[in-house]
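Structural biology now treats backbone shape like a language. To illustrate, our science desk offers a sequence and the tokens encoding its fold:
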Amino acid sequence: MPRSENFLMLIIFAISLLLILQNSIFKINIRTTESPKYLIIGCDMRVGNYQNYLNYDRNSKTMEVNIVINCCGFNTSVEKHEKTYFIYEKQYGDLCRCICNQKIIIFNVENDAKIVFVSYDNKKTILSPNLEFCGISTYSECQTDEDCITTGCSNQICQSKNEEELMTTCEFIECFDARKFKVSCKCIDNKCQWS
């Protein structure tokens, strides 16, 4: 066969292979994590209350997460594994002497998703064990699960038995029901939090 025919056969083979893969005849899934669509919006250094929190819009399935990070030397990324979104803080440079609230908007989030923040030192903070559950974690210090208790009029707060109980209003809202959402108050990375 002349060279031009070999080259032509090679091109036809390559195009055929691409079409086969594009049409998903062969489903090869090596990755265990997905890359969700998300947007990172700078760092807000306004003086005020620095704490991690999130807001979820059920209608648009959009979640806004605010995390407290160092102003310098960090990259933030989001990965999804099954129904859990992991927000990773990675150190790449020198730290500076300031902190900020970094806003992350994640799109197409299911209502029963779990949200976990993993800091640069690999400590996990569960921001929400289930977006339909609205209990509160104080993230107070603990050594074992026995150090963590549920408090509040509806047992919606997960906190250390060594800290003063938080005052709450006495109303039962369905999203406080830890049993329904299969979550429990545990000691994770030495912090009392819902899991």
Residues 21-32 have pLDDT under 50 and may be disordered.
